[in-house]
Hints:
The chain is of the alpha/beta class. Helices cover 33% and strands 16% of the residues. It is built from 22 helices and 27 strands. The protein has an 8-stranded parallel β-barrel with strand order 1-2-5-12-13-14-15-19, surrounded by 6 helices. A 6-stranded antiparallel sheet has the order 20-21-22-27-24-25. The two termini are 33 Å apart. 53% of the residues are buried.
Amino acid sequence: MKMKKNILLTLLLASILSGCSTPNLVRSKAPSGLSMEAETMGRANPGYIQWLEKQAMLTTSGKLSTVVSGTNLFWLGPYEKPRVEMMLNIAPVWLTFDATRTLPAGSSSVLSALQSERYLRTMQDLGIRGIHIKSMRESGLIWGSPSKQRQLGDDTVSYLFSRGFGDEKGFDAFLQKANKQGMIVGDTVVPFATGRGADYFLSVRGVDTYKGLYCMVEVPREFWKNLPEITTRSRAVLVDDVSLRALRSARILPPPLVRDSLDLSLTPLNWYATGVVHGLDGNGRRFVYLGYGSEARPILNWNDPSKSARRLISGSLIQEIGMLHAAMTSVHVSPLYGVEPTYPNADISGFGVGDTAVQAAREIAQEVRRYGGWTFLQDNLPLPDVKAAMERGVDFTVNHSFSTGALYAYATGDTSMLTQSLYTVLQMGINQKRFINCIQPEQYIDFSLPFMFNPNQKQNSEIRSKYLDNIREKLTATGGDVFFSGRKLYLTPAAYVANIQGIRDYRNLTEKQRQAISDGLTLLGHTQAMQPGIFMLSADELLGVFPLPAGILDYTTEEDALRQNVSGAYDLTSRGGNNILTEIGLPKAPTAFDNIDTEVHMAESFVGNMRRIIKLRNALGMQNATLMQIPKVKNKGVLIQVFQLPSNNSLSATAAVNVINFGDSPASEEFSLLKTLASGNVGLEDLLTGENVSAAHNAFSVSVPPRTARTYVVRSIK
């Protein structure tokens, strides 16, 4: 009853704007982008410019803002303080998946497959209470935007859903069915690196309203000689080093950005030059703009005084939370990280380099709370920046440091990184209940270790390098390919476990190998599930998705190949039938596990294991637990955590103890509990195995098998 009440309250908050009529969003009927943008000579066609404006997100954002501006809707929701407790009570466990990688149901849409009663019941039975969907909207693909590097659906160009995903009516039907099963639904805000769609084309046409929307600079005609030549089939090319120096000397472009000098694995920001584009005035113009790893991902200019980027993002939030009634939205601010220009003798020793990204995260979170929703920050940033973004900002943030530490411990049998991440978080005073705990948050594992980044501490840099060398050595010990690009390791969670176990042939797995992968993912899943805050599983983990065979997709660089190989399609709903390609042409990936509907009730399957662990998590109220102790251990592969449980947990326990052995050998440990947690005569009980442990001389002795996690509850012994 309490859960239903909380969900009803959430839906009420998230539908504050539902009393207003929704502006019409016009679906693009664009011909190929090449035919549209072929008119590079003469004056631009006024009718074409008007058509572009109808498709543009910035135009639509103006219509959406009228729903809120000047009304009481803007004042109905408090916006300063994050509403952590409410979300933890409503949806402490989430599933996340990528719409562009999800195979549809036959010839229908992905949304039709998601509405399956069997699928929703399976998610409910697993313990999922929130469903987060990524990459739902139209991408630059619909404009035929040529790019050497394949885009994977996150190059958003419209507020509209992609045709392969479905439409607003289908989303509403899915939302209603999910709500009836006790689940809420989350969306993803338009990225700060969009695709090249109507907004981009209007910007390069010199339309006044769109000036300042992107990090874009018009180049005076006398400096065109310093720009690279543009071929007839390309709209933008990389500005080479010689041209960059000339444009910087002329103060047309700024010096290198701060992020370029940081010892982090940030996606590179490069300057790209357009060809000659004619506007309504007949004048030809050339521009250079910042692209996020590719010319197909222009970056929004959050700091421009026109506030165009702010308005475009605001329109996305009004649509998601207000019109579509999504309960939360996730946000990536890393494209804005370190965008400040650097100068000779500039001091970059502090963490002010993330101020633009942090401020954007705060402003988005506060607006979302006005409309009754929540924000999840996805970025892997240095912890001081994460903490700053959480202060009056985002409600929850992905815990990359603990995830990377656990993955490292699984590979090496060494919990030093894991323990260090915990101590750093505690020392900084970050509220762990606001973390989102994942097995592997991204499609790669970042061994530049941002949580340890501090330009003032050379020792930290040396330790980070040592960790990277250790993981490289472990992965190469069994032979085969190395999936590193710099310090990014591109492997799916199942492939990571398989590689550590020496399993390389993903298509011919034995039952013993499948079980080894299931056991490894279970250890990592147990570790993350038994942490305060939100626990989030991914479709890659539930299905045991493996990388695509090398070379199956065209690629431009080794990193592009690695990035695509871990982005294969999956049949999340078991309704894909004979479909083997997604809307954007991603082929179906091999998987370790079968149908989720079946495996959720299989005792030794990964999904079945997670079902039991999530039930235990909910019974303990782990989302509201508080970490009280990290006892010292004698085995380097063991981590022990002692949590104080909320008083209303259904097991009537005072505390919970995680004992996690990442080592290859059995481990025995002895530890004592704080007197505040173990007053009187108490014992430990493992609810998964039924094992009972009594104290001897005020200390507990426990033994844990190799690569195994145990969670004990502290009970009074009468």
